[in-house]
Amino acid sequence: MPELPESDAARRRIADHCLHRTIAGFDLGEVTHVQLPSEAERERLVGTQFSQTRRHGKYIFAGTSDGPWLHIHLGMSGSLRVYDEGETPPDYARLIVIFEGTRRLAFRDPRKFGRVKLIEDVDAFIAAKGLGPDAMKMGDNAFAQAIGSTKTAVKSALLDQSKMAGVGNLWSDEALYRCGIMPDTRGTDLDGKAVAHLHRAVQDIMGHVMAKNADYSQLPADWLIHHRKDGADCPRCGGTITKKKVGGRTAYHCPDHQTHAG
DNA sequence: TGATATGTTTTACT
DNA sequence: CAGTAAAACATATC
């Protein structure tokens, strides 16, 4: 479930359970189209340890103390799982990092849209990707500039990783739902107050999901995430949850309390 | 069986 | 350049 909060929960698993352990080797899943580190790149990591982690938007990085970084993107369906030798390895494991002792880190990816690769410099990588600022660290002015000054649908702007990094389909819907903004409202049609409200909603929602370690069952019952189905009752106003395409993505929303005025 | 899916990238067109 | 749209990637699930 990989947007910014889910990616951060995955990063934290590395930070909490996999640092300062010597890498002994790797296990590869079946040969697939998933982009994984080459044998030479894996060899570079053997004998080293991860000593730090970073995240920018949906991109996760695990750094060796004085060498390359392992970069992980979870794609559409990827996840990370930490376990110990002797436990059942997870399904769809494409790459398993074997640490000395029993600790293991598995990169799972059922739909194979994720990527793992070795990079030398995180900031250079972010710049080369053209990623905007991390959505959780973005200031008011930068957010207002990115969202309020574009004619694009506000939902599409939120999803544009070059405007800001980390917001995906689920949490963009959640933020617009909370703010009462119709997903296809043009950015330029929102007033300053609505843009500021949306900024708070994006950061509050994703911050909350991170605080709950991306466990959706711990999120409030009236959040859209629990009612994301065409025809469901809107828990906030009694309307009917409806879906429509906005910018090529499915936008779940409540047409009764989400309007073009915000 | 067919529709749909949490993401990114590329290509084409306006 | 800004924006839109669609397709492709490979597979699972409803």
From TrEMBL:
Give me any GO biological process, just one: base-excision repair
> Which part of the chain is the FPG-type domain?
225-259
Named from the GO MF annotations, one term is: lyase activity
- Report the InterPro entries cross-referenced here: FPG_cat (IPR012319), FPG_N (IPR035937), H2TH_FPG (IPR015886), Ribosomal_uS13-like_H2TH (IPR010979), Znf_DNA_glyclase/AP_lyase (IPR000214)
Q: Which UniProt keywords apply?
A: DNA damage, DNA repair, DNA-binding, Glycosidase, Hydrolase, Lyase, Metal-binding, Multifunctional enzyme, Zinc, Zinc-finger
Q: Which domain of life is it from?
A: Bacteria
Q: Could you tell me what reaction this enzyme catalyses?
A: Hydrolysis of DNA containing ring-opened 7-methylguanine residues, releasing 2,6-diamino-4-hydroxy-5-(N-methyl)formamidopyrimidine
Formamidopyrimidine-DNA glycosylase catalytic domain segment(s): 2-114
Q: Which family does it belong to?
A: Belongs to the FPG family.
What protein is this chain from?
Formamidopyrimidine-DNA glycosylase
